[in-house]
Amino acid sequence: MGMFERDQQVFANAEPLDDSYEPEDIRERDEELEKYQRALQPIIDNRPTSNIFLYGKTGTGKTVATKFMLSHLERDAAEYDDIDLSTVWVSCENLSSSYQVAVALVNTLRENQTKERISTTGYSQQRVFDLLYEELNALGGTVIVVLDEIDNIGHSDEILYGLPRARSNGYVEDVRPVIIGISNDFQFRENLSPKVKDTLAEKEILYPPYDANQLRSILEPRAEKAFYEGVLSGEVVPLCAAFAAQDTGSARQAIRLLREAGELAQAEDADTVTEEHVRDAQEELEKNQLYEGMQELTTQGHAVLCALAYHQALNEVPIRSRDLYERYVNICDRLDTDNVSERRVRDHLSDMNMLGLICVYERNEGLSAGRYHEYELDVPLNAVLDVLLSTNRFEEIANIIQSTATDNDLLQSGISNY
């Protein structure tokens, strides 16, 4: 017997439990899909189309719905001789400016034509935009530009001003650019410049978190395909749905929990996936989720987390947002990135509290000072530094924080402390 043998008792086909799996239909999003269809209908009618922005936390179906709708749109558009439709998709996960997004768009368009890529440095922003317009002109027709996780660009929103106005400004001729923006940040639009808000004139579609019944509906057909018949005990799918609904309302979290429970049962050579496997899987994923939560923060979110980590290293916590804000602004200056208002910093802190990364304490000093909040990390400082050190942009500052914490004997042992 070898060390590895093919599983023949738990997973029949694990693909439906993979993050990249695209289901045949989208469950529990009928209202959102109807709005999406109405927003895309003008393309089939061959008339001007509004930009579309989807807002919702991670795992609420924005990206999978977009892939689903665009696949149908492309297939249906092919039936009409007078529709010339192209789609270009860019993930902005590691892009923090309009310049970087424009470079990524140029290179994605050039890949489709086997043309030489352009460098990420060495061009002025206007030159990169000109190259983008050249590529769009070469395509012609309606070009849907999908910008996934667009909130990562923060205040650097020139791409959202330039693309919608490219035709009216004469930068492109027989091209109709349509932006589909996907954002994990409900507040993203509020931080756009007034001219960008006016130019976008977008249709907004909100994706709220799923409840337990919706998550169960999403899990059931995947579980049926993924596991051998009779392997899952009756409480497994409802419990996975309940755990995810109580936490984030994320379908992705529920699916990962189901897969992890199956893998634990497989490792034990068990014939059945049980409630106990789900509870063990939940405990394991909670640890991983903290790391993922930190890694998925935007550049601004990382800067706020970095500022709080700095005060943690100095043993200056819990700390008020007004005091934290000064350190945050200094970090943004050091990174040569725009800073946001103190109110937006509090929004980021609220998001991190929801992710379980920080603690928030409400103080009431009476008439003299009134009510206010103080903040500190709710995860080991070492775990935060691990994430920051793995992010090139924050590596230098993370090293400084690490040295400061070591000097103050405050560096915790890391993952073992979870």
TrEMBL record:
One of its GO terms (biological process) is DNA replication. Residues 305-388 form the Cdc6 C-terminal domain. GO terms for molecular function: ATP binding; ATP hydrolysis activity. It comes from the Archaea. The keyword Transferase does not apply. Residues 48-206 form the AAA+ ATPase domain. Pfam families: AAA_22, Cdc6_lid, WHD_Cdc6. Keywords: ATP-binding, DNA replication, Nucleotide-binding. InterPro entries: AAA+_ATPase, AAA_22, Cdc6_C, Cdc6_lid, ORC1/CDC6, Orc1/Cdc6_arc, P-loop_NTPase, WH-like_DNA-bd_sf. ATP binds at T60, G61, K62, T63, V64, Y210, R222. Belongs to the CDC6/cdc18 family. Involved in regulation of DNA replication. This is ORC1-type DNA replication protein. It comes from Natronococcus occultus SP4.
